[in-house]
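Annotated sample (chain length 835).
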Amino acid sequence: MDAYDLYDETRHPFFRRMSLIKEGISQIVLELRGGMVFINYLKTAVRSMSRQKIYSLINIMGLAIGMTMAILILSWVRDEYKYDRFHHHAGRIYRVSQFFSRGGLTTKVADTPAVLAETLMLECPEVEWATSVRGESSGELVAYGDEKFHETGIGITDNLFFKVFSFPFVEGNPETALALPGTVALSQRTAKRYFDDSEPLGRTLNFYGKDFIVTGVFQDMPHHSHFHFDLLCSKASFERYTSPRWEMSQFKTYLMMHDSGGVESLQARLNEIAATRMFGDGYAAWAAKGNSKTLPLQKLTDIHLQSDLKYEFEENGNSLYVRFFMVIAVFILWIAVINYINLSTARSAGRAREVGIRKTVGSTRVMLIRRFLFESVLTSCAALTMTFVLIQSALPAFRMLVGKSWLVTPYQEQPLLIPGLIMAAVMIGVLSGLYPAFILSAFKPIAVLRGSSGGGMKSSRFRNGLVVFQFTLSVFLLTGTLIVQKQMDYVRKKDLGFNKERVIVLKTLGQVRNKLPVLKETLLQNPEIQAVSASSTLPGKEFDYVGFHVEGTNDSWPGTNCIAADAHFIEVMDAEMVRGRYFSKEFMTDGRALVLNESKVREIGADDVFEKGIRIGGMGNEPFHVIGIMKDIHYEPLHEPVKSLGIVMLGGACTWPESFISIRIRSKNIHDTLGGIRKIWEEVVPGVPFQFTFLDSITSDQYRNEIRTERVFAVFTLFAVFVACIGLLGLASFATQQRTREFGIRKVLGASGKRLVLMLSGEFVRWVVLANVIAWPMVYYVMSKWLNNFAYRAGIGILPFILSGFIMFIITGLTVSYHVIRAAGMNPVESLKCE
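Output written by the structure step:
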């Protein structure tokens, strides 16, 4: 080895080892320096936030509230999209509906004939399984020994129900549980309630006047099912449901296809069945007039959000509302992020000297961008921490607001979403702080140390544009809320053709029957009771849809909603007769008489409907004769025009039982009157639960979706405006602080405090005016689409726009007034001392 080799670091082992040690030490230094940099960034961020506590609090609170509202809304949206997707073959399950189109009016119902499912199984190779289900919405009294239970979740179905739907059995065999007459399957909670921990199979329950043997127990149906049953009894137990009667539509038909490729051919076959089996020989002539009757297929997973049919098992959701609230969630989050960007860019002027000094001592632009982005991300992460606290505090109230007691936030079901939320918070921090960071890092040291931040800070167009955008969203939500409230007020106050006030409704549970005359007579002895009536259903409840055929014509007519009521129904409802008369006990022939509403008479189009005999499906071959025409009543929601209606005499040719007793009272002292009614009920019908409601509540329940939307819309609009005002408060405070010296100079030159207030307030007023001008056309378009859901609507009008604009002016004035007046009233000497 020569001398050269001795000192060659690349060849001598000693120098190679020393080089490796030096590299290791350098790496350690870099790592320590990185940790120190992080600590330094953290200290700087905390000091900056502590120096300006109000702005930091506004930033954190604004982002936290925005993220809280967005996560809560998205939790509800996620829950809405989960319906009916738990079934193993959900993608292959469809429901058959009925559409009738006549004279430009389309009636859409979910009910179909009971025989349709069997027909599909026999004649349609595309169908693997088909089942039919009927729900008893009015409830029934179920007896087990000496105990009686009021059940509203009773369903009637066949043995193929558990082939189509995935409701696992806990006990019994789903293959045979409902195969025989007189069998019933119970949900787990119902079996527990009836039999506690004892064996349920083989026990006997009595309802519908029949004995049913428990043959199975299935798991409770999930919340995310569009129907819920606690007792499922076999359709074979009822002769009237097993006979092949195409004129009676009282069941929902579901089918599971072999694969999804045969939908078109099956749909064609269904339409053929509608024309040949359900309608009769007169379909061709009827269709030639532009009319139609079809049996459209609906995907099971579309029912909850896409279906708007009559006679649904339960209230469905609305895809329009889901999309709308998704937009609201994004709007609120945008408003919160805009607040942050506005305050960050405004505050950047106050940190100009800090930037100049840091650049002077060697900080590069990349280092400054990294530092300020770190502060922004730290703020958003602090907001996320507060968001988790706010969500857990607000979740119980939110569940009540949306009517979903089971609702949980997404990260409670999927904890892996928490890292995703953290990443989202980091992204929000980066995106929110990106613009301010680049603005701050671009300052020139010489300019800022002289007291000028350069041209970049002189222009506030970007910040003003964000404020206008923020107020545009707020005006949009506020105006939309006012329009929704206006329509719902119209719905509540519209004349429905009957008087829904002061009518008490009792559920009979099928237990009154022969005691009805005594009950009515005893009730009428109370001087506070004006009239008592029994009926099979009521306005706001489900009506039976039956076939009508006018004799002496070659035309066949689509079905009609029908109700069985006694002679006092029109008196209790306070409805009006247009022609003829209503039922009366004095006429023995009224047992086969018929009262039609005006819409049905127009639909029939007969010259003299009183001379026409009308056959009604399921009520024998002997025709009914029309004795009167009643003024149209809105017995369905105002989303649809008034539909045709036929009323038959309760206890006459119609064998439908009374389900409700309606009592019109004179007194406003409802509490005492109810006490008297309860006492009479318990004396005449002992052992039957006294269950009452009010007719106005029943009719209001038809708009449960809209009422809930109104409440949710109002609450989240309030929060959106609140978040916007938080940002406006911070911006007003900073704006007045930055112009303190300007105000002092203006006051020295003779400007009055009033003039200064008007000058600064005018800037905010201009923003609000521009926001209203931008928002109003958008609100008009969107709310016009929403109002199209109603056949009867109040219209939009100009008042909601004027009122929302006025409210925003007041809110803006109250938000900025304190800081503006305080700055304008400051002593000029003190103002000129301000740096």
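Annotation: DSSP finds 28 helices and 28 strands in the chain.
Annotation: Confidence is low (pLDDT under 50) at residues 1-10, 27-32, 454-459.
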